[in-house]
Specification:
With 163 residues, this protein is an alpha+beta fold. It has 3 helices and 10 strands; from the N terminus they run H-E-H-E-E-E-E-E-E-E-E-E-H. It folds into 2 domains: 82 residues, no CATH class; 49 residues, no CATH class. 23% of the residues lie in helices and 28% in strands.
Length: 163
């Protein structure tokens, strides 16, 4: 009798635990959102901004704090898989790859490389922002470097300078 009772309690506990997860707030797909949809969630908490594979999103970069500055031109990113940025009013942003749970702390990382400037007057930064499920930003970057080394020069993207 005690075993059955204990099993029932454990089953109830596990069922309750499985039901736990992040609370879902409003959801907006960024690539197709209207100005009205974006305005509707602007001051809301727990907003799930959705990205689907293939979505191309303009990005403005800005730096605040011990550095300041940003991009003069809009950059873009292309989503390689379905994911969400979950924004809170009083907590750090979270990333979800399944729409149900939050990814771990290593799912978003910055990698910074310092290299000499082409004009020889100091250095410049190469800043890579990693977001992924593997959590191994260095391994992902190494794969990218190796694949770029194997490209033929004619296949490589052309470099343009923006002053």
């Amino acid at each position: 009798m005690k075993i059955v009772s204990l099993g029932g309690v454990c089953g109830l506990f596990l069922a309750t635990l499985g039901a736990c997860g992040p609370a879902m707030g409003p959801m907006v797909r960024v690539a197709t959102a209207t100005p009205a949809q974006l305005a509707e969630v602007e001051d809301k908490d727990n907003v799930w901004y959705e990205f689907q594979a293939g979505d191309v999103i303009p990005v403005q970069l800005a730096f605040l704090g011990v550095v300041e500055g940003g991009s003069r031109e809009t950059a873009v990113f292309r989503a390689k898989q379905h994911f969400y940025f979950v924004m809170f009013q009083h907590a750090p942003m979270q990333i979800s790859f399944d729409g149900k749970s939050f990814a771990g702390p290593h799912s978003s990382q910055s990698l910074i490389g310092v290299v000499p400037r082409k004009d020889g007057k100091g250095g410049e930064l190469g800043w890579v922002i990693y977001m992924g499920e593997s959590g191994d930003a260095k391994a992902e970057l190494q794969k990218l470097v190796e694949s770029n080394k194997s490209e033929k020069p004619s296949d490589a993207p052309t470099e343009t300078a923006h002053e």
